[in-house]
Design goal:
It is found in: Cell membrane. The chain is an alpha+beta fold. Helix content is about 25%, strand content about 25%. It binds 2-acetamido-2-deoxy-beta-D-glucopyranose (NAG) (9 copies). One 2-acetamido-2-deoxy-beta-D-glucopyranose binds next to loops.
Length: about 800
């Protein structure tokens, strides 16, 4: 049995790296010799003690996928260097090579000119390119007497990240300068607006935005910079070299197990190690007189801006009024910010393209009533607000002692007033809610629009928006009808679902259901925007999700690499939160009944949103179990009591969540896992591995073994608890959330799961490629309807 499992697993891993049949560069190797090539199917080049690795790395989604030759930290995947910042390459075709002339270059078939990383003045025969344990990728000339000379090193071409022993500064002999440049956007590595430089004369670090100084670290004294928080420099030892040859700055860590690196983001934040910890916040520098935190004063602040005016991120429903565009793909966030800042009629901006480049400027007047602020749908818009003084204070300890009582008192007063405000606001909210409910009862059916922000669209408009329901616009087939992409006259993109004519529901029930769905507002649920009723035709209009659905990524060899463990874990948490809301916190208890990977849509930031409420059933919060003789759902995700007896409850959704969880961890469909002799599905397979304590073998090979073991174990454990045979044994969504977010041990142990043995037979002869792209088990991934006798 074990042997067969092992064989299966091996076969699967093999398939999942579709093209892994011959691994050219042995993973244990850290070097390229003349004549060697390295491409995306070679996986990685690891430094000797596997601290860093080099690979072709893809980022982005759909139309905006960018591929770079990247050096990453094996500790947490942080990208510390890219070899082709200016020009993205093709993931499947790009080749890095070192040839017999000593030329180190990246090429791919459709590219006319190779990207030359290094080319010696005269051809050199004996070279070697090595990824060192410092994270430096070096090209050396090997001499016959056994010594080497350095020809080229990645450390001489820093990108956005500074790691120990890497230099900033200038080489006086060659004139070469070492400086960091931020990325243009979070997916485009092209040098962006911000640079981090070493100023030898002042002995300080400086961040510039398009050449203009916005932040200074203050002079280096006693191995400390005044304007950098102590926690960010705690274990660092700075070294300054200043002589005729060079003027440079670098750092090392005094604690080897605590290596630090600094990374300059596209918005001007200099963070260390983890994204939310900062060395410097140049994004908070607006040029006012206040120089706290290292921000610098500018001369040219427009008269209409007053101290405290800052841009704050809001998630807003897009409003296309008084909007202007800048379609330049070479500019991004901070350029838009600067442009909006100096235009007195601009009070907000957003990114324009999927890759984060370009700008949209909002020219709104003081009244902002028409903007729907909320936790749902919307786009990130940066709105101008006055927040008083927001620059954090980072002073030496002496000043802190003096300042802290003052701050404490201020904070106390602030907290008290915030509390007062919150109570007042809450009262208002409750009153508002009551008022809303009253008017809902009064005016029901009169106008869905006013109460729920739900648009009732004209049929002709819907027809025009979808190009007469053309097949080009068709996004897919949902539970109860096809879904189309549509563009409203305002330019807003929406998903339009045309309910099948045969659906027996009447207009009254339809409106009723619409009102209910409208009330479901949660960031992890797809937002309904409007509807349209025309004769027999019932149409729902949803927000459009640019990144398609989870299955599009999860079950595809190439795209699954875009979902690293952190993303997967945050998707899991998002789905769980959405489901908890449906089960517990919405006005009515909602049982989704068709939770599966293809019903989890992803927004532009890959946040999950549960979609397709076509089969959802709603109950008052007291009722919980129901029975139906119409079983709808998807094989593989249906709980046993529901599939066999038609009994459904919140625990049926919990079952589906469990299956989904295991699919996210493993990157495989529940139903795709099969073997003629041992008809185990994924759930059964996981159980076997769990029993043998080998559950880590389950983890998706696309993760390249980079994941948090504790989190993975937690997810598998929860997954198994969710798929238990008896509904009562399965955890509730509240239990699941608390297990997911806590760090403590999980008390309950899973029992042998339901549907342990695959119940369906497939006669197809599956080829490896098909299995890998997930196109084979199509029959099981669509929603089915069947009648049971009860
Ligand atoms: C990538 O490397 C593999 C293994 O060496 C090789 O079979 C394949 O042809 C290479 N692909 C390209 C595009 O060079
Ligand atoms: C190495 O690559 C360079 C640049 O593409 C090319 O000019 C040179 O002829 C190549 N040398 C060999 C030995 O292939
Ligand atoms: C360069 O190296 C190759 C392979 O080792 C060898 O055949 C060739 O003779 C060398 N050429 C020179 C000029 O050293
Ligand atoms: C080794 O050879 C190189 C080039 O031939 C020369 O520059 C270097 O000085 C030599 N080193 C020693 C230790 O002989
Ligand atoms: C180094 O850092 C690790 C991890 O934070 C810590 O456990 C250890 O005590 C530190 N060692 C020293 C010498 O500070
Ligand atoms: C900022 O400082 C400059 C020079 O010290 C001064 O002229 C200006 O009035 C100050 N502005 C504000 C708003 O305090
Ligand atoms: C963007 O940058 C590229 C390369 O630097 C340049 O060729 C192009 O003209 C620029 N586009 C605009 C709109 O400035
Ligand atoms: C749009 O701008 C016009 C004049 O430029 C103004 O009258 C109108 O109020 C603005 N609309 C909004 C929604 O701010
Ligand atoms: C509204 O904004 C426009 C420019 O977009 C400006 O011309 C107009 O004076 C503003 N109106 C008010 C009432 O502020």
């Amino acid at each position: 049995m074990r042997l067969i499992l092992h064989k299966l697993l091996l076969a699967f891993m093999h398939l999942c790296f579709c093209f892994s049949s011959s691994i050219h560069v042995d993973a244990a190797h850290d070097s390229l010799n003349p004549g060697d090539t390295f491409n995306s199917s070679s996986h990685q080049l690891y430094s000797k003690s596997r601290k860093y690795f080099l690979q072709f790395y893809s980022v982005g989604a759909l139309d905006s996928i960018f591929t770079y030759l990247a050096i990453q930290s094996a500790y947490d995947n942080t990208i510390i260097w890219e070899g082709n910042r200016e020009q993205s390459v093709d993931w499947s075709d790009a080749v890095l090579s070192l040839n017999f002339s000593g030329v180190l270059k990246i090429e791919y078939p459709s590219m006319k000119q190779p990207i030359i990383l290094y080319s010696p003045p005269q051809p050199i025969n004996n070279t070697v390119a090595t990824l060192l344990d410092t994270g430096n990728f070096v090209l050396q000339h090997l001499h016959s007497n056994g010594t080497n000379t350095l020809l080229w090193q990645s450390f001489d071409y820093p990108t956005h990240t500074l790691i120990p022993t890497m230099k900033l500064g200038v080489n006086h002999k060659t004139g070469h300068r070492w400086l960091l440049f931020s990325q243009l956007t979070n997916v485009r590595a092209t040098p962006g607006a911000f640079s981090l430089e070493w100023e030898p004369r002042e002995q300080e670090l400086v961040i510039r935005r398009r050449g203009k100084v916005c932040w200074k670290s203050g002079k280096l004294r006693n191995n400390r910079f005044e304007n950098i928080p102590e926690e960010a420099q705690g274990v660092l030892k700075y070294s300054i070299v200043s002589n005729g040859d060079e003027d440079t700055f670098s750092f090392t860590s005094t604690n080897e197990s605590h290596t630090r690196w600094w990374s300059l983001s596209d918005s001007g934040r200099l963070s260390y190690n983890y994204n939310e910890r900062y060395v410097a916040r140049a994004d908070l520098c607006y040029g006012y007189n206040n120089t706290d935190g290292g921000c610098q004063r500018w001369q040219d602040i427009p008269k209409c801006r007053i101290p405290g005016d800052v841009f704050t991120k809001k998630n807003l429903r897009n409003n296309y009024q008084n909007l202007t565009f800048d379609n330049n793909k070479n500019i991004s966030y901070s350029d838009c910010e600067a442009a909006c800042w100096s235009d007195c009629y601009c009070n907000g901006f957003a990114q324009n393209f999927d890759d984060g480049s370009g700008c949209r400027f909002y020219h709104w007047n003081s009244s902002k009533d028409y903007i729907v602020d909320g936790t749902v749908s919307g786009q990130d818009i940066f709105l101008l607000e006055n927040k008083g003084n927001i620059i954090p204070h980072h002073h030496g300890t002496k000043r802190w002692i003096w300042i802290s009582p003052v701050i404490a008192t201020t904070l106390l007063i602030l907290c008290a007033s915030i509390l007062c405000l919150a109570i007042k606001k809450r009262k208002q909210v409750i009153q508002e809610k009551k008022r809303k409910e009253m008017s809902l009862i009064e005016h029901f059916g009169n106008d869905l629009n006013k109460k729920n922000g739900l648009k009732v669209l004209d049929y002709t408009l819907v027809v025009a928006a979808t190009n007469e329901f053309s097949s080009e616009n068709k996004l897919g087939q949902g539970g109860f009808g096809p879904v189309y992409k549509g563009t409203l006259p305002t330019g807003e993109e929406v998903a339009i679902k045309r309910l099948a004519r045969s659906s027996a529901q009447g207009i009254v029930e339809f409106k009723n259901e619409l009102t209910l769905i409208c009330e479901l507002q949660h960031m992890n649920l797809v937002q309904l925007l409007g509807c349209c009723i025309h004769e027999e035709e019932k149409i729902l209009i949803y927000e459009y999700m640019p990144n398609k659905s989870l299955d599009f990524y999860l079950f595809d060899c190439t795209r699954s690499k875009l979902l690293d463990w952190n993303k997967r874990f945050s998707i899991i948490q998002g789905i769980a939160q959405g489901l908890l809301y449906l089960h517990k916190y919405s006005r009515l208890k909602v049982i989704h009944r068709d939770l599966k990977a293809s019903n989890i849509l992803l927004d532009e930031n890959m946040n999950p949103k549960i979609s397709d409420f076509g089969m959802a059933r709603m109950f008052t919060q007291q009722d919980s179990i129901s029975n139906t003789n119409r079983v709808v759902g998807t094989y593989g995700y249906m709980s046993p009591e529901y599939a066999m007896e038609g009994v459904f409850s919140t625990k049926s959704d919990v079952y589906s969540l469990g299956v989904l969880l295991l699919e996210i961890v493993s990157g495989r469909k529940n139903t795709s896992f099969y073997d003629d002799d041992h008809p185990l599905n994924l759930v059964g397979h996981v159980w076997e591995l769990w029993k043998d304590d080998k559950y880590f073998e389950l983890v998706d090979p696309s993760l390249n073994e980079v994941f948090d073991h504790e989190e993975v174990q937690r997810c598998i454990h929860i997954g198994l608890l969710c798929v238990e045979h008896y509904a009562n044994d399965r955890p509730t969504m509240s239990d699941i959330i608390s297990i997911l977010t806590s760090k403590g041990p999980i008390v309950s142990l899973p029992q042998k799961p339901a549907f342990y043995i695959q119940r369906y037979n497939y006669n197809e002869n599956l080829s490896s490629l098909e299995l890998c792209t997930g196109s084979t088990v199509e029959i099981t991934s669509s929603t089915v309807e069947m009648t049971t006798s009860t």
